[in-house]
Amino acid sequence: MGGTADTVTVRPVNAGASNLPAAAPAVPGAASSGAGWRILKFFAALALIPACVGLTLGVHDHFMSVWPKMNLAMLGPGPLVTWFAIGAVVFAVLAILLWRPVVLYVFAHELVHALATWLCLGRVTNLAASARGGQVTTSKSNTFIRLAPYCVPFYALLAAAVYLALDAWWQPLGAYSQWLAATLGFFYAFHIGFTLWSLRRNQPDLKPDGWLFSLVMIYVGNVVVFLVLMGFLAAGHPRGAWSALQDCAVLGWRHSANIYHNLSLMCQQLINR
Asked: For the chain, how many structural domains are there in total?
């Protein structure tokens, strides 16, 4: 039709969000339609909780089978997972005792909103970040755009991308892989810590889809990212990430099917009483 899409302002931290006017529904009945979708997503989230449990059990089974073999696949002067843990501990100590880089988190959060918007073929016209909060103005909004920053450890993925690019086009960096592992651990802890910190606040990003559905999606997204990182570190090369995802998907499906089967039997027993 040639018209421009309504702008949507997304904020990662509830810092004065009440100063922003609420957007009016684009068409009559949009508010009731949105409420209906939230109800459907709420029940979808309830139905997915057993699958989340199954996926978690699958991740546990995968790493319990892989862990004893890790030392045979490691690069560098020590297990990469150990260096990953060291990096995470360094961030935890830094954040607890010395410094919490809130501005860095807010900037990454807003940038991921923007990148997700571009992936969805939307437009970004404004991005601001400060210690009090941030915002990004986009031409569209959907579940992926709203929740991506809570799942994507931007700085960890950036560090991995730089490492792989230098390793491929500059010189082999296998001898320094332990430093990559420590960096990934540092920034993954950064992501998890600040994601939990931000979710404790009244996040507008989670309201359109409902809190339960949003939290389920965020959990699944973070499990997938964790598998990618740990699969890479456990195998010592990027192909390990895909192997970890495949194995955990199969194991998680088996656990989930078993959980749903048991729940179905329980429901049948209750009905037959």
From this structure: 1
